[in-house]
Design brief:
Strand order of the largest sheet: 1-2-3
CATH architecture of one domain: 2-Layer Sandwich
Shape: globular
Helix content: 25-40%
CATH superfamily of one domain: BolA-like
CATH topology of one domain: GMP Synthetase, Chain A, domain 3
Amino acid sequence: MLRLFRGVKQYLPAIARRGYCEANTEFTEGEKKIISILKSKFPSAKVEAQDISGGCGAMYTVFVEAEEFRGQRTLKQHRMVNEALKEEIRDMHGLRITTGVPRGKG
């Protein structure tokens, strides 16, 4: 079973290249929390998160593909994600964000 970032290799090539998808099948508590928050903010979005700090929760990379981003510049999309995660970001060292709009509409 593939887990994180399946189908988004074009957005996160380093993760895909190193085989992270096949190696891990469990989410950390931090990953679960971030996914839950982003899914509540963007209910129809494809949301994926990965702790890239070795499991300590200091740095994450997230991917959000949401219809709410349609017509918005990348900077605005990232600000929307930052706003959704503002409480969690306070305890992080860094956050790498990739956003996108679902294909096939409008």
